[in-house]
Amino acid sequence: MDTRYFSSDTIFAGGLMGTVRLLAPPVYRSVVWQVGSDPRTYTTNPFKLNFPTAVGTVRIRLVGTRPVDACRPGDRGVDTLTQLLTVVPFNYRHPHAAVEGRFAGATTAAPLDTFTVRIFTRLVPLTPSDTSNYVLNVYNLNKGCPGLDMNVIPGYRALVFNQTRGDAQCHGVYGAAAVDSTDRNILRIRYREQVTPGQPAYVDREFIGRRVR
User: Fold this and answer.
1) Sheet bearing 41-42, strands edge to edge
2) Scanning 71, 87, 115, 163, which has the fewest C-beta atoms within 10 Å of its C-beta?
3) Please, which contacts does 23-26 make with residues 24 or more away whose CB atoms are closer than 8 Å?
């Protein structure tokens, strides 16, 4: 499984969260995708697929045609690959995403300057009595910033964020955060940060953190 920003075997259903991008290895000259029990097949690569509702675990099959390997007797140049994708429901009040939590670490550019990034759900009232509008928040990126103006597209194992407006305290940042595919206690955030708050020049950053209580 591959999305534009990160790979994942579990996603939330609905909208942008429920969209995955299937990408076959470059060795295959042609492909045939089949999704679950759907009798339809698809032959484009890459191929975008959307799940508007939670469907549990779906088996995605790829039949790829590649050049015949002369060193393998009987090779027909056709491989069948399968991948399981789990699509779970999303609740804005309680996402329970694997990417949520507190992660202590540092950027690769300054490994001794440690800080903790927190990803959590917060209420954003549209009116004083509103208790229904919840968003995911990325706190302390860059260091010292509350992330209150950050736009976040949530996912189960990862999220995409964008806060382009900088000020005297906070540099504008945008990028993607994802927990490791084998160890969900490790978070990597690859992002771009304004060199000077409010100015158009950006520098690439990577934060690596481990989950803490």
Assistant:
1) 10-12, 78-88, 56-65, 30-35, 41-42
2) 71
3) 23/47, 24/62, 24/64, 25/64
Structure tokens at 178: 């994802």
Model pLDDT for residues 89-111, shown as the tens digit of each residue: 887 666 678 888 999 999 999 99
Q: What's the rounded Cα separation, in Å, for the pair 80 and 50?
A: 22
Handedness of CA 166, 212, 185, 208 (dihedral sign): positive
Q: How far apart are CA 21 and CA 33, in angstroms?
A: 12
CB contact at 8 A, 147 and 141: yes
Based on C-alpha coordinates, what's the Rg of the chain?
A: 20
Question: Cα 57 to chain center, whole Å?
Answer: 18
Which of these ranges, 40-44, 78-82, 132-136, 187-191, has the smallest mean pLDDT? 132-136
